[in-house]
Amino acid sequence: MIPFRIHTGLVAPLDRANVDTDQIIPKQFLKRIERTGFGEFLFYDWRRLPNGDVDPSFPLNEPKYSGASILVTGKNFGCGSSREHAPWALTDYGFRAIIAPSFADIFANNCLKNGLLPVALKEPEVATILQRAGEIESYELTVDLERRLVTDGRNFSRSFAIGDFQRECLMEGLDDVALTLRHEADIAAYERQRPAWIR
Length: 199
Hints:
Blueprint: E1 6-14, H1 21-24, H2 44-47, E2 70-73, H3 85-93, E3 97-100, H4 105-112, E4 117-120, H5 123-135, E5 140-144, E6 149-151, E7 157-159, H6 164-172, H7 176-181, H8 184-193
């Protein structure tokens, strides 16, 4: 997992509430077992017109948001199924942080385990970011996990909450496997003590 400490990036607005995981990555693309290759299908049904052509009105299709690495969106983002492919798709597309008033619990947990930072801010604060991302050319934010702070370097600066354990894992780039391997010596010692017939 890529460590997350301080990230500055272009902001893409998606002013929609209750975005579920089937909209983030539709079910027909859940055939891969790797974590990569999902980015091109992110928001597939919204990014394309019924005839399959790219919809130029969808924010992520607009050239001014090309290369965005921070997504700002509406409340209850990531609701629906618990598919881990949703944060995989967002990460594979290039997002490092998502800012919203609230997140579905399982989705937020999946994000944290995959190096994607969900940042919950108050609705008026998110509305301000959405407006600025739409009006200001190349609008950027800095998400500072070390200080638990979101700022645009101008006149917007807000703190956010995150658990100490989750913060440490993100900052050190530790997923569940890496956390387990911290105890590799103890695991090996335990395995050596087990009777041969159950090894």
